[in-house]
Amino acid sequence: METIALTRGVPADEALPYARISESLAGALQKNYTVILQYGNIGGYPLLRQFVAEQYKVSPQEILIGNGSLHLQDLFSATVIKPGDTVLVEQPSYDRAIKTFRRRGAKVYGIPLQGDGIDLDLLETELKRQVPAFLYLVPDFQNPTGISTSFEKRQALVALAEKYNFWIIEDVPYRTLRYRGEAIPLLRDIDPKHIVTMSSYSKLISPALRVGYMVAPAELIAKVTRLAEETILSPVLPTQAVVAEFIQRGWLDENVASLKKLYEPRMDAMVNSIRKFLPGVEFTAPEGGFFVSITLPESANYANLLERAQAAKLGLTDGKTFFADNLGDAPVDSSRDRFIRLPFCAITPAQIEEGVSRLASLVK
Amino acid sequence: METIALTRGVPADEALPYARISESLAGALQKNYTVILQYGNIGGYPLLRQFVAEQYKVSPQEILIGNGSLHLQDLFSATVIKPGDTVLVEQPSYDRAIKTFRRRGAKVYGIPLQGDGIDLDLLETELKRQVPAFLYLVPDFQNPTGISTSFEKRQALVALAEKYNFWIIEDVPYRTLRYRGEAIPLLRDIDPKHIVTMSSYSKLISPALRVGYMVAPAELIAKVTRLAEETILSPVLPTQAVVAEFIQRGWLDENVASLKKLYEPRMDAMVNSIRKFLPGVEFTAPEGGFFVSITLPESANYANLLERAQAAKLGLTDGKTFFADNLGDAPVDSSRDRFIRLPFCAITPAQIEEGVSRLASLVK
Q1: Total domain count for chain A?
Q2: Does the CB of A154 have a partner CB in chain B at under 8 Å?
Q3: Residue A166: its pLDDT value, please?
Q4: Are residues A150 and A286 in the same domain?
Q5: What is the DSSP string of B269-306?
Q6: Residue A122 CA from chain centroid, whole number
Q7: How far is A189 from chain B (nearest CA, A)?
């Protein structure tokens, strides 16, 4: 029996455009090797910084390009978190981000996530108690749930950031991978004043290029850039130059189009398999991205699920890792044990159907 | 008048092997793109890890390859430095390393550097007072002085690490660039037990590849690797694959040979220019690397030297940045204001002679 991994949110191997990556490096080096191979340009490869600035309609001084957006989150956290600070996240949220904020000294609380974004009432109650260093959101096709924050909630969130004066990170690595429906404006499109936008090319070209970026007011970018220089000296410019050349040749749009074609049927296979094999479980069907998540009913057989799944050659991620502390340190109930993230991009529709079917038989 | 930069220790632009770097990426991706472009392999690109392990006669579990050795120093520091710890360095030492150790919470003391390595008597006096988290050394062609630690001192340092039980980082990015004389064994060749060896391909291929590594006991490597994964998720594998392919094709040895041919006359030009234009100043002539440093006599005109140099179109680095705190927090004298690092690799012999001549006229 074939092992089926419903674990990490990684791109499909067959979608990695390796020949065009080689050509992009060769082309970029031919034109500009003394910049690409030398120390310097801590803010990022100038041409890529310019492209990102144009995309977000800001100046290059409002852009920092680093070795992946997780590292930028780490550097941002080290810059803004002070002793005693809290950070708020969606509950559940991206596990590595939660860990990063904790490692940099914050107490991290989760605000329950509803089908259209976080619970605004609970958020404002918490804001009245303590204003956080920042609120971390994945507003488009969230990791792990696939949920997108509605336009109305985005407007309300921007207004709350203004009223209480805190940063919002909007982390949007999946945004471009919308398979259907209309794009919802970014929070920064509503008002950029309190917004730090982060994203990367990991899901659009290749994760191991480690090219991520942040968009924020120039003063904040300057602070994070200083810490970046002290920490890494220079970013990895050759992979940034690959991305710039890839964009310049028009290959990014082509690549995104082919990814959408590959991933949309996989998303549909996942949603349909859940409906077919796990009727009645709680989930929100996404319109893009990498993930769907389900919460099993209390009546499900979820004890030792990961071990039993492994024995049945089904890889699952521990759902608890996506949860931060409950607000007010409220006790933890079993819902986080019943939470399962189901990434769908790196496996075929047939594997997805087989995987969900195995999962269904395990939780009966 | 041409500006002459006697500032950063960077490779010569004309020595950056850009065509072979392009070919190396293309060749590596052709063979192994699903590993090189995908998440994973946090310990480093497997083939490169294997090559480095073979070079140091250890297992791959004793190697961590990261995005440059400064970042590995940062991660190592975060792993081993505890509140109240000290770190000892050569005085003077690499400015960015000093800053990194301080940022990670250590009090950093400098042990005076003599022509054959640090002052062992002062080191042992300090060890009796407080055992540091680690001692940071650049034993081959030190940055900033160009001094190499003698074999006898290396033996004594290894014995002290054993007696007092502390780590020694031997940071050896310049070691391979020996233009004459015999290589001195690494500290780890004497006894690896307390030794963390760090190095990189920044000076041998290209700095912006950001491929650095550490060699240490497997248990310590595992700890630093865990923090690396939490911080950067994955290293930048494409540039590590470039280095592996570059080595496999035999191009590293060829590149080192051509660098030696380019840099040796520049080192000689620097040493000869100092002797010619600045007779009597204190310095140690190196046998390799990137740097010579001088200490001007007290009688020299060194007030506002950086500003006056700039006006004379001569770039100089502030010598004070290379100094940590004095032992026992002894007061600072003027010697650090009279200290000047003179990198010689990125400029021609004619520029070196002109630069030192300008410097000499400024300090008269």
Answers
A1: 2
A2: no
A3: 98
A4: no
A5: HHHHHHHHHSTT-B----SBSSEEEEE--TTS--TTHH
A6: 23
A7: 28
Residue B222 near residue B232, CB atoms below 8 Å: no
Chain A residue with Cα closest to B234: A208
Please give chain B's pLDDT, 364 residues, in tens. 899 999 988 999 999 999 999 999 999 999 999 999 999 899 999 999 999 999 999 999 999 999 999 999 999 999 999 999 999 999 999 999 999 999 999 999 999 999 999 999 999 999 999 999 999 999 999 999 999 999 999 999 999 999 999 999 999 999 999 999 999 999 999 999 999 999 999 999 999 999 999 999 999 999 999 999 999 999 999 999 999 999 999 999 999 999 999 999 999 999 999 999 999 898 999 999 999 999 999 999 999 999 999 999 999 999 999 999 999 989 998 999 999 999 999 999 999 999 999 999 999 9
In whole angstroms, what is the distance from residue A333 CA to residue B177 CA? 61
Give the domain CATH number at A54: 3.40.640.10
Question: What is the distance between the alpha carbons of residues A106 and A84, in angstroms, rounded to a whole number?
Answer: 7
Q: Largest Cα–Cα distance of chain A, in whole Å? A: 63
pLDDT in tens, A253-295: 999 999 999 999 999 999 999 999 999 898 999 999 999 999 9
Q: Residue B231: closest CA among chain A residues belongs to which residue?
A: A71
Residues B213/B217/B218/B221 CA torsion (nearest 10 deg) = -40
Read off the tokens for A261: 């074609």
Cross-chain residue pair B232–A67, CB shorter than 8 Å: yes
**Residue B288's CATH number:** 3.90.1150.10
Q: Are B39 and A208 within 8 A, CB to CB?
A: yes
**Any chain B CB within 8 A of the CB of A31?**
no
Q: Is residue A100 less than 8 Å (CB to CB) from chain B?
A: yes
Q: Which of A10, A29, A239 has its CB closest to that of B236? A: A239
* Residue that terminates a domain, selected from B222, B248, B274: B248
* Interhelix angle A237-248/A18-36, nearest 10 degrees: 120
Residues 220-249 of A with CB under 8 A from B: 230-239, 242
Q: What's the token pair of residue B103? A: 């940022």
Would you say the pTM of this structure is higher than 0.90?
Answer: yes
Distance separating alpha carbons of residues B119 and B117, to the nearest angstrom: 7
Chain A partners within 8 Å of B79 (Cβ): none
Q: Is residue B64 located within the same domain as residue B140?
A: yes
**Closest CB to B18 among A8, A33, A234:** A33
Supply the pLDDT for residue B8.
81
Residues A9, A22 within the same domain:
no
The span from the CA of B67 to the CA of B64, in Å, is 10
Instruction: Read off the pLDDT of residues A91-111 as tens digits, 9 standing for 90 and up.
Output: 999 999 999 999 999 999 999
Which of A195, A216, A248 terminates a domain? The answer is: A248
Q: Name the pairing type of β-strands A134-137 and A167-171.
A: parallel
Q: Does B33 touch chain A (CB under 8 A)?
A: yes
Do B147 and B279 lie in one domain? The reply is: no
> Which site among B13, B14, B36, B210 would you substitute to test the A interface, given the most A Cβ atoms closer than 10 Å to its Cβ?
B210
Give the bridge partners for B4, in sequence order: B314
Predicted pLDDT at A8: 81
d(CA A64, CA A53): 10
According to DSSP, the residues that pair with B270 across neighbouring strands are: none
ipTM for the predicted complex comes to: 0.96
* Structural domain boundaries enclosing A221: 18-248
Q: Are B236 and A208 in contact (CB under 8 A)?
A: yes
